[in-house]
Amino acid sequence: xxxxxxxxxxxxxxxxxxxxxxxQSVFEFNDKMYIFGGYDGAVLNDLWEYxxxxxxxxxxxxxxxxxxxNSCCSINDKMYVxxxxxxxxxxxxxxxx
Length: 97
Prior knowledge:
The protein is mostly beta strands. It has strands spanning about 25-30, 30-40, 45-50, 55-60, 70-75, 80-85, 90-95. The strands form 2 sheets. The protein has a 4-stranded antiparallel sheet, with no helix packed on it. It has a 3-stranded antiparallel sheet with strand order 5-6-7, with no helix packed on it.
């Protein structure tokens, strides 16, 4: 069995990247990685795209209610988010992009 080893990826455009955060969702869509929401001292509602070809991040949207501890996925040509928590309550909404 091949041994796997983590290595740090240096981003080419460092100022344009997601804030430090926890409890975000991460998923793959069309060969790119996306990060949605999370918590960095405030509850977030931003969507970031990482392009491995360009080795760079780009903020794509902010929309949906701010949330953390949510679940995201992509199916065919859509992205979906379900549930999570906002500042006060648990959510059970289902949204698509």
